[in-house]
Amino acid sequence: MALDDSVLLRTEGRAGYITLNRPRALNALTHAMVRTIDAALAQWEQDESVAVVVISGAGERGLCAGGDIRAIHADALAGGNASFAFWRDEYRLNARIARYSKPYVALMDGIVMGGGVGVSAHGGVRIVTERSAVAMPETGIGFVPDVGGTHLLAQAPGELGTHLALTGTAVGAADAMLCGLADHFVPSSRLAELTASLAGLDDVAEAVALYAQAAPEGELARHREWIDECYAAGTVEEILDRLLDYGDPAAKEAAETIVTRSPTSLKVTLAALRRARRLGALEPVLDQEYRVSCAALSSPDLVEGVRAQVIDKDRRPRWSPAELSAVTDADVDRFFAPLGDDELRASSTSTR
After folding, report:
1. The overall pTM is greater than 0.85
2. How far is residue 92's CA from residue 343's CA, in Å, rounded to a whole number?
3. Number of domains in the chain
4. Where is the Enoyl-CoA hydratase/isomerase domain (predicted)?
5. Residues 137-149 pLDDT 10s
6. Which of 12, 169, 207, 312 is close enough to 201 for a disulfide, judged by CB 3.0 to 4.6 Å?
7. Which domain, by its residues, includes 103?
């Protein structure tokens, strides 16, 4: 278990509760937190007195804003490899959550991004609220969707997942449900009641049904036509051309967002999504994402993207290469190169 209070664990009645407890950092995941969550899940899976696991975030702002990218940035600058160990354990935790044998209830209230999606959207019961903002925004920091994000987005209807992956757009409750990232809408004012009720009820579905409501209308459903047509293109360049030519202001806005992202990240992300569709299952996709993430650590765009968005906050990243046309197929293929003995092998059941 963790030596600090960054993850709070408790059991009550039939439920095990996990609370991510770094509210000032929007509950960003550290390596120690990942290992603590994994150890708790392993223990509770064998504990007959625990029938359901519930994960939530401390504070009012969200479940989790992702991994600790400041630490990853520092590791990349130093030419280190601590991030490799973090990702290895994080992705294996994602796999454990996806195959967990007991109901795993994720309260996706507020901001849920990157690694926050990884510890929630692979669960069996995923609850969003009117405050939810769910996203995989990695292309904006010179990275690529990970934590099983390419698996989730590749499974979304039509090309919705491609749109979310390339733009990094955050979606609310209804759109998260439409994309297959969440299951139920519960008003935030009722989460405490729902959470408490799970301690005493054996039927989780029945408990959730008592609190679930119809989600407020989303945005994506009315844009499906241009999203599906434009993002079906085979290259990022062609996607941009289609978006700009479509004639819909929302499509043009999407194109304007995409051109601000890392050209390398965009091309690798599109390739990762297409490959994830062919791979199908989560675990081989996590293995692929590990290769991509390890390659990204030595990419100049990850260091520059985090600098621009998080460290200096000037919002003016200088991508290298700066143009999509300068990113070759060989550049993209490098991110998918096998790692030999260092492969992830996400089917491993524990991070320890």
Report:
1. yes
2. 12
3. 1
4. 16-336
5. 999 999 999 999 9
6. 207
7. 7-342
